[in-house]
């Protein structure tokens, strides 16, 4: 993978490129043609680590710091940041630059989508999860107390610049969340990428820049292709929700604390594989491969790895999970819908699964060794 790799998202007049850069300094030449007033919203931790280098590369850009963490994806933070933009002289001719993970990317994208009825924005993802998933596709949102990502707009970025070397400082737990989303992307669409991940000699203690660069580019190529075919998730874009139905229930059960999104998605994928096998779609050997792959990348695969399932008042039971899955915004009427696999690399469009089957599957899932 060379640092000049470019991947396109073909969306007519809203098409854009994802470009790989070797260093922050390379942004200078890439972003200077994007003239006019620009304001960067930068994650506070990223600012602490790389703020100087970003300011040096982008001397004409103003920087606003966004507090790290999911709480920044809120109306409070949206309003505060919008006011800061006005104070900084932003107009309809301004553009925003998101520098951070999915939190800053989703907040900046939403703000760009609604500020003065919409201004352009650019993504500079700094987490693996943002590099393999959230920086591409134009889904933006903030959370409500009643649920995650409940208010948002589709607003595609003008460009995405990926600097994989920034991952060197990413905490290992966050890195694994990106691996979980990369596995998801491979499982739904690309058996050869699954094989490559199975064959890779992964060592969590070693920072492997080539592996992470190649993996993120492979995952983004798949996502770019899916988004180009189904921008508004009317069809195959739903594949990308593989593992997310149970994941969202786990996150809600733990009040969006303690369990990271990618961790919940790993457990959710293991469960969706079990369900796919129980419904006769997926072979037991493919189910075993999925379990082994998640394990290889040291991801949680059991409910008990992420939530309390045994005894006590905080125990999360199968009926409770069912209730939480029912409030997933992707459901239609009262039925709980799942993206399932018919083979490794082949997803099926979401289908309703009966409560009785789900309860029996959750019970089997709880018994997993
Ligand atoms: N829009 C989409 O399509 C989409 C897709 C998937 C997930 N998401 C959203 O993404 C969010 C999660 O994103 P995330 O996992 O990137 O989390 P995040 O943005 O919270 O970042 C994780 C942590 O890593 C820190 N960090 C970021 N870059 C760093 C670096 N290079 N070095 C050291 N620390 C760094 C951050 O300060 C933060 O503490 C969720 O809100 C989720 O809903 C959106």
Could you characterize the architecture of this molecule?
This protein is an alpha/beta fold and 369 residues long. It has two domains: 6-169, Rossmann fold (3-Layer(aba) Sandwich); 172-206 and 222-366, Dehydroquinate synthase-like, alpha domain (Up-down Bundle), CATH 1.20.1090.10. The protein contains 14 helices and 13 strands. A seven-stranded mixed sheet has the order 1-2-9-6-5-3-4. Strands 7-8 form a two-stranded antiparallel ribbon. A two-stranded antiparallel sheet has the order 10-13. Strand 5, helix 4 (102-114) and strand 6 (121-125) form a beta-alpha-beta unit. Helix 9 (244-253) packs across helix 13 and helix 10 (261-278) crosses helix 14. The chain is globular and about 60 Å long. The two termini are 39 Å apart. The mean pLDDT is 93. Bound molecules: nicotinamide-adenine-dinucleotide. Nicotinamide-adenine-dinucleotide binds at residues 43, 45-46, 49, 68-70, 73, 100-104, 106, 126-127, 129-130, 133-134, 137, 139, 148-149, 166, 169-170, 174, 177, 261.
């Amino acid at each position: 993978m060379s640092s000049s790799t470019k991947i396109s998202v073909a969306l007519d007049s809203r098409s854009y490129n994802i470009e790989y850069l070797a260093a922050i300094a390379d942004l200078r030449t890439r972003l200077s043609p994007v003239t006019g007033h620009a304001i960067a919203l930068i994650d506070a931790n990223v600012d602490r680590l790389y703020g100087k280098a970003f300011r040096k590369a982008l001397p004409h850009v103003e920087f606003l710091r966004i507090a790290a963490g999911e709480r920044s994806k809120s109306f409070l933070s949206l309003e505060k940041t919008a006011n800061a933009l006005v104070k900084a002289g932003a107009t309809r001719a301004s553009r925003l630059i998101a520098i951070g993970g999915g939190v800053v990317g989703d907040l900046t994208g939403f703000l760009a989508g609604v500020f003065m009825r919409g201004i352009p924005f650019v993504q500079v993802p700094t987490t693996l999860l943002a590099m393999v998933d959230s920086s591409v596709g134009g889904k933006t949102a903030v959370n409500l107390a009643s649920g995650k990502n409940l208010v948002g707009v589709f607003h595609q970025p003008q460009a995405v610049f990926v600097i994989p070397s920034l991952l060197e400082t990413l905490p290992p737990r966050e890195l694994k969340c990106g691996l979980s989303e990369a596995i998801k992307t491979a499982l739904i669409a690309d058996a050869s990428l699954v094989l490559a991940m199975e064959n890779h000699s992964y060592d969590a203690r070693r920072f492997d820049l080539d592996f992470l660069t190649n993996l993120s580019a492979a995952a983004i190529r798949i996502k770019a292709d899916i988004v180009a075919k189904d921008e508004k998730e009317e069809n195959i874009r739903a594949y990308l929700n593989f593992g997310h139905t149970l994941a969202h229930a786990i996150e809600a059960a733990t009040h969006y604390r303690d369990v990271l999104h990618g961790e919940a998605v790993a457990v959710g994928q293991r469960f969706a594989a079990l369900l796919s096998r129980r419904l006769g779609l997926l072979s037991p050997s493919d189910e075993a491969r999925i379990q082994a792959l998640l394990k290889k990348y040291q991801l949680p695969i059991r409910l008990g790895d992420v939530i309390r399932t045994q005894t006590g008042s905080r125990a999360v039971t199968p009926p409770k999970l069912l209730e939480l899955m029912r409030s997933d915004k992707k459901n239609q009427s009262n039925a709980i819908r799942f993206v399932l696999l018919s083979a490794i690399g082949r997803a099926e469009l979401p289908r309703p699964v009966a409560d009785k089957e789900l309860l029996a599957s959750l019970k089997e899932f709880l018994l997993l060794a």
